[in-house]
Amino acid sequence: MNQQAFPATTTAPDPSARLVLPDGRDVLLPILRGTEGEPAFDITRLREQTGSITFDEGYANTGSCQSNVTYIDGEKGILRYRGYPIEQLAEHSHFVETAYLVIYGELPTRPQRARFSALLTENAHIHERMVYLFESYPRDAHPMALLGAMVNALACYYPHLATNTHFGETDNFDEAAATLISKVRTITAMAYRMSKGLPVIYPKRSLNYCENFLHMMFSDPYEHFECPPVVSRALNLILLLHADHEQNCSTSTVRMVASSGANLFASAASGVCALWGPFHGGANQAVIEMLQAIHDDKDDGTRFVAEAKVGRRRLMGFGHRIYRNYDPRAKIIGKACEELLNELGVKDPLLDIARRLESIALSDPYFVDRKLYPNVDFYSGIILRAIGIPINMFTVMFAIGRMPGWVAHWREVAFAGRPRIYRPRQIYTGPSVRDYLPVDLRE
Ligand code: CMC
């Protein structure tokens, strides 16, 4: 091993941190700074210099990459895509434009936006033969299982877009990205219609992204479809607010898979699987199930909060690894939720329960001390419910929204000049070396 430690007397030149080892040697760790000044110790040569690795289970202190897609300040509750505050994008932009921004790094000019929209429209249909694939799944399959399988299967039906990347095969990126973002919407609607035994509705060229999705979900094939603007606006907002969120479980999974040179569809399918769990994207389904259970129990939420405090359950839609403040997305969604229900004239008792639960939790020392606030999933389900999306599809909606982020992160990895596979280390805690025992000698 090449040990290049510095003698104990060496003063670390700025900007480096000095790590003093148990044997008295010093190692200098360069300090990297992000655009907003956030510091990080660069340990890329640590093992080479010291023979040791770092341990950070759950990666709460580990920066796994440098990325220029999204900035979060969890203490202050700040979220920006490519530098633009989420509040401004939520007010002025829409999902397709924001998807372009997230993927390509700049807000599109008018011609760029038109070209991107046209690519989405051209790629909205899915291969007819994929229908047989849908048919082979059980009718009651969970939509996230189907989505993961179908996104991965895109590599079979569109092999020219499923190229491995580390060897410069990135020519078809625009088409592959548009294919993925456009087709997830069609796949989702098709899965829903088939699960209900309804005829499949094909996308319409004249409709925008969200209208088209709602059309494919809810149209009657023999009637003209009229999508209330307030509904497509609400859907647009939900998707836009989910478009990226830096190194969360699913996005880091996408980057991990991409680092092996895997194609965009395979990488995105891995993101779908990672998103499914209730601690991550699956929380939006779990929140509504929790609110419904509180409603059915005729509890005011006190019992749920009490059980959460003794570790018997988690208050779903509360807490976040990064935010130690109100999740800015939850603020926007909470407001949009009230507006949507008012405009639709819908009275959802679950919204009242959610508000009550929030106020109980936010005045309870357990939640206050741990800085647990509502996250994006706390109110999003109430909007999705009002739109008519079935509960078991909520996480799929999160996945549709997150696609641009996964594409952007895949692109950062795939287009990196110098390919480098992600390969963490571990601290082995299993048995030490032992000899093989023939089966007759085993107890
Ligand atoms: N309800 C009750 N207690 C909680 C909750 C919660 N929702 N979240 C965290 N805690 C407690 C936890 O038990 C721990 O307590 P203690 O210090 O006494 O052991 C403390 O708060 C710190 O929790 P943690 O597990 O270290 O926090 P984490 O950063 O590892 O977990 C989380 C983050 C989101 C997984 C967690 O807060 C959680 O399970 N929340 C509920 C599920 C949820 O809403 N997930 C959606 C996240 S936002 C959308 C997304 O990006 O996926």
Structure described in brief:
It contains 18 helices and six strands. It is mainly alpha-helical and 443 residues long.
Name its key features:
443 residues, mainly alpha, Rubrerythrin, domain 2, Citrate Synthase, domain 1, Cytochrome p450-Terp, domain 2, 3 domains, three-stranded antiparallel β-sheet, 18 helices, disordered N terminus, binds carboxymethyl coenzyme *A
Bound molecules: carboxymethyl coenzyme *A
Strand order of the largest sheet: 1-2-3
Rg, rounded, reads 24 Å
C-alpha end-to-end distance: 41 Å
The total beta strand count reads 6
The major pleated sheet works out as: 3 strands, antiparallel
Q: From N to C, what is the helix and strand string?
A: EEEHEEEHHHHHHHHHHHHHHHHH
The second-level CATH architecture of the largest domain is Orthogonal Bundle
CATH superfamily membership of the largest domain: Citrate Synthase, domain 1
What's the structural domain tally? 3
Structural class: mainly alpha
State the CATH class of the largest domain: Mainly Alpha
Residue windows where pLDDT falls under 50 for at least 5 positions: 1-13
Shape call: globular
The helix count comes to 18
Write down the overall mean pLDDT: 92
Helix content: 40-55%
CATH topology assignment of the largest domain:
Citrate Synthase, domain 1
| Beta content | 5-15%
